[in-house]
Amino acid sequence: MPHFDMPLDELRRYRPEAAEPEDFDAFWEKTLSAAREHDLDARFVPFDTHLSTVDVFDVTFAGFGGHPVKGWLILPAGTTEPLPAVVQYIGYGGGRGLPHEHLLWSAAGFAHFVMDTRGQGSGGSAGDTPDPVGSGPAYPGYMTRGIEDPHEYYYRRVFTDGVRAVEAARAHPLVDSSRVAAVGGSQGGGITLAVGGLVHDLAAIASDVPFLCDFPRATTLTDRHPYREVALYMKAKRGSEERVFRTLSYFDGVHFAARGTAPALFSAALEDMTCPPSTVFAAHNSYAGAERSMEVYSFNDHEGGGPYQQGVQLRWLPEYLKG
């Protein structure tokens, strides 16, 4: 796959034209206030992994609507004092999987909280969290569930779960609540940006090849799923474009980035047809925080930097979590 998007020098200057709703902040304040009317009820049940290097807890907490959301808390074995924590969000279609799939951050000496994604987990890693909320007609997948009303849209629930996951991680006595970072790739990177814009005291965020950014450009630039789900929905439901893009404007990573203040590490891949590089740079270039950086992988598709980017994170995050 050759480079198909803007040249790199243009990407570094690109500013999206996506319109932000006037009531964006009010919408999210009301959403999170409603979620917090439910007791967080974070429960941590010891889970036997037959691994000697970690202690694992099977987590349940109340997310959007008070709905139970699952997760894992993974600690270096024998932890007795509070540790800085990494809260991780999962890519599209995947769930929390199994604990032995998530050993990187505990090996680096951090508490590691992995959030399950409601309604997902049947494509790739397994999930354990149902989404009890229905929606109107939708294209198969998650992108168009409730897409003609921001109050009903699927990602309103997911992003709220993401914020509550940070609160759940902070509720454990072996997590240092003052040193928590959010990380994720693809969909997980988009959730990370949302949480970074809604939780204003994170120590850092790391968003790799993030999905859910610059919807107007993404949905017209690439024909690859999941963005293609939105286009196919509008293809079937002619005349829905204004309603669809209005809804998506409440969930655009660009607008959350404009509110993020924690130190931020991004990555983009210039051959990425799933999350085109211009949409990733749209969020990076809009980021409000003074400390932001971008790793670029010139000849990679949506796999991005993979283990190389993890290596960058392993060098970068300790400055903010252990400093």
Task: Please describe what this structure looks like.
- The protein is α/β, with parallel strands linked by helices and 323 residues long.
- The chain contains twelve helices and nine strands.
- Helix 3 links the parallel strand 4 and strand 5 (111-115).
- The protein starts with 7 loop residues before the first helix and ends with a helix.
Instruction: Quote the beta fraction.
Output: 15-25%
Order of helices and strands: HHEEEEHEHEHEHHHHEHEHH
Report the sheet with the most strands, covering strand number, pairing sense and barrel closure. Answer: 9 strands, mixed
Mean pLDDT: 96
Rg, rounded, reads 19 Å
Q: What oligomeric state do the depicted chains represent?
A: single chain
What class would the helix/strand composition place it in? alpha/beta
Distance between the termini: 41 Å
Characterize the overall form: globular
The unreliable regions are none
- Helix count equals 12
Q: What is the tally of beta strands? A: 9
* Biggest β-sheet: strands ordered side by side in the sheet: 1-2-3-5-4-6-7-8-9
Percentage of residues assigned to helices = 25-40%
